[in-house]
Amino acid sequence: MSRFTTHHFKGQKALIRVDFNVPLDAAFNITDDTRMRATIPTINKILADGGSAILMSHLGRPKDGPTDKYSLKHLVNHLVKLLNGATVKFADDCIGASAYEKSAALQPGEVLLLENLRFYKEEEKGDIGFAEKLSKLGDVYVNDAFGTAHRAHASTAVIAQFFPGDKKMFGLVMEGEVLSAEKVMHKSERPFTAIIGGAKVSDKILIIENLLERATDIIIGGGMAYTFMKAQGGKIGSSLCEDDRLETAVELLKKAAAKGVNIHLPSDSVIADKFAADANIAYAPSNAIPDDWMGLDIGKDACEQFAGCIKRSKTILWNGPMGVFEMEKFQHGTKVVATAIAEATQAGAFSLVGGGDSVAAINQFGFADKVSYVSTGGGALLEYFEGKALPGIAAINK
Known about the structure:
single chain, alpha/beta, 16 helices
């Protein structure tokens, strides 16, 4: 059992670092509330115990202090709905008189949302004085913001030192993220297939290197596949390619061969005469794409090959789409991968989907509830899989 689950919050003010960095439209409507919904069970447990919750978060990247556009006040009404009408108060500062007064007056069962932490430069600098001021708002510190666990910010990594060991803990989101990531990286059942997509090899070098120690199969799709194709002497037309990473691609393939890890590259591609939703399309081997044509999705044979590999797996990590899935003509490959992961999961595999585009794809195709775990982490998950220690996790485990 975890520290959070067994802790009883009756009469305590829980200071929770949440990740409410949600997208807003021009009228301040939330266009995707996934991150807010994720942390509701953590808040509900505290309120049900007879405690109160003080929520702190960042929103966007405000450059010059307080800005209306980045105010967390825009989230209050939606938060009330998500909490089934619970009392949600708002403090127009995250430290200072109004925050302290509202925190002191907070009653059991009530929630206080603090203003954007990043209105203070000290947050991103990891300033210890700022962290201490925040710590005075609550009796217990709960970090439930996995999306910021890789940042050594005041509210995620520095603040924990002001709470004794039994008064600092992960919330349910953090717990789920950490357990799922650890299961994939350290307790994976084989065959273990990692599906790595996206545009650039350079973004994924460290994760691929780390996975070479653990995975049995690595599927490479998306724009980055064409750097590997060119590195092996293939003709890739005007497909995306990082020419300064060709040697890196060759090295990764050599390391994989030496370790007996199967690297799967797409044998064929859906090609287009321009990067546009209305482009003309054709099919070609991924290493024989005509000049002025570009690969924008994996082809029929690659779909079959990748799906077969995924369905044989017992552990699956998916990070990055297979093509430009935002355009209908180039979404088939990503959809096939999502479907295969769902089928493998149903057959008993453990599947973890992480990274903004993969999460968007799994939501778009309606498979979010058909995989084992969908990470809210993005950059934090990537850094975890690169083998880095995440400051937000280390601070609680100290």
